[in-house]
Amino acid sequence: MTAETVTSRPAADVRPPLSPTAARHLATVERIAYGAAGLTAAIGPATDLWQLHAAALGTGAGVLCRLWTRAREDDAARLLTASYKALPVLGLSTAYGAGLVVQGTSWWEVAVSVAVALGSAVALPLTRSRGVRRAAENLPAEVAAQQLPDEEDYGPGYLGDLARHWAAAPASGSTRLAHLRQYRPDAPDFEAVILAPPGEAVPGSLDERAVAAVFDVPEGAVQLAPVPGHGPGRIAVQVAPAEFLARKDRGAPADDLAALWEARVSSPRGIAPGVQLVGHRFEAGRIVLRAEAPDTELLHLPRLQLARALGVEDPELLMVETDGMAQAVITIYADHPLLTVREATPDDLRMGKDGRIAIGLRHDGRPARWPLYDPELGALTDLLVGAPGSGKSVTLLTLIAAERISGVVSVVADAQDGMSLPEAEGRVFHFGAGQAESAATLAAFSAIASYRQQESAARGWGSFVLGKPWRLAILTMDEINRMIAEDAGTPKPFRKWVAGMLGAGQITWRKVGMGVRIAGQSIHLEDLGDSEKIRANAKQGTTWLGRVNSSMTRSMASDMTTGTVEITPVPKYFGVSGAAELEAAWSGKEAPTGPTTAGTAWMIQSGQPYMSRVWRAVKERRTYPGLISLMESEPLVDFTPEEAAVFREAYDEALTIALALLDGWDGKGAVPGAADEEHQEPTGGTAAAAPSRVPAPPASARTLRDDVLDALAAGPMRTREIRQAVGVGTEGGPASGSVDNTLSKLAEAGLVARVGHGVWARTDQPDPS
Known about the structure:
Helices cover 38% and strands 15% of the residues.
């Protein structure tokens, strides 16, 4: 099929015929108009109203000029219809003119006007001309060609001819062909989208056989598929007769794919020996594969190597999802599937019975679900990591809007002085802006958790039930690295106090319906105050890993996943692959840029990562009005009066402590700036807020590094003995991996040395060997 062979049906119906009801109403109006015009033509010439004379004669002259224009167009159909509609006006105008010329009023003047009006009322030329069907076969070929739509209706060239051909085909009905794209200028292969009228579905009769008949191609050259993210009103279609004939010559595509997989993936020299291709399907714009590891073996499919093996130049077009053991689904896209997403609706953000909301889209068009609450586990710990411009703030704001829509109490702390989440201020229960205010917000939230725990223990409750008597509450802490990272510039006692509150909250908060969402630019332990609990507990909730500046993305998230899927860095732009960068370097040209990937991230849940993108948000005047509207679509959600009182009291106390710690207080003695009767020095020298549910700051800002060195002060120890000495395996103790990492860093710093197999000693001790 070529562009020359595509023909179009003449546009026989320039205007659709009227419905019977509309035709009756228009006919009534038209008859009344003719009656009035006939009466005017009979009486008007006898009057002295020159304005009436001019209007009557001018109308006739105008219609005559219009008729002359139609005659010059050499369009028989349009001239016929125009003449039919012009007869009443010309007849009445002529009768009016004759009455003006003849002196007096003769009976025939009135008779002619009445006759023309009656004839027009019977003929109804205006009404019936709208229903006249001008059959193309009864017109000359050149006239039919002139009735085709203008070039701008369908576009020029081959793609425009395709759209005309589809509109002309009886099988297409009221649908139209849109978003056409030709693969190569030297081949007729193309893809498009079949659009039904608004509110309607594409007819089921439009199957591969019907489309193949429209374009006169083999049935095997046509493929239909749903459009991801849309309903039955859109169907993607691919018509590729040239590729179909080529496949017949060289064999089926499945054979080619199986051979490629066997040679480069599953063979002994492939990237995943023994991993078999057990299923596949071709869809519009993508290929979906299913793979399985051999018996007794775990699946491992490195994403970059797989893209290389399958000849995919841009690895962002290849997605891998696994069951964590042996099965995998690989999807290869023609274009990035997350290039465009829509804005969120209240229904998207309303929590379901399973505690989940739709935060955006997965790469395959399915909703990306985010649990605000787990009916089995209770409240959750979430972790969001992303560099500036990665879409982290939009994701947080979307989650905060979902909390308000779902009846969840939102507490927000923004360590960047409120600049990161300004839309949340005034639209949540509490908004803490700044480092001291964020720490005080965390302490006050922890105080409510202590209040709930005491009340639950007094009543014998062992679990949390939504709304009975307390609401689900979630604390969002943004820019956490500014508070607890080693290079944040904050004093060590302040960092340890904040990290300690976060770590302690991981143990009990979920049991009383209080979750926490931590957001920052890194998830290295050093940037999380050496708190292993923060990352460990995030495995129960959701980890959102967006574009980061660090080159250690895989190692940062290695303990968050099952390890069967390779997490690769999210690029800054869509469509800018390493191949494009390489070509730019080779040619000496500027590297291309594309649409930003803001909001695109790896979503990690239950150890399984997948690519997703949050709902789109449009920024206007430095804020997001769409997200603000979503927040304000439901009333503000508050704590109970008792909880609110606890929060306010604890916040005031904790703010004094936070400001003192940031000002250099070491946690010993009375809190500077606090009343003596409120903060007395307790036994042991640690300040305690009284009365208080506020966690006290540490008397000494000790780290795991200090504990390891203290343990080795007694002499050389084995690794397992060091772990036991620092509390590995106890409640609140560090993880074994953290101890091993600390030993490695101390060895690099020259503070400890390995003096035997698994035996360590301090280098400042005499003769550590």
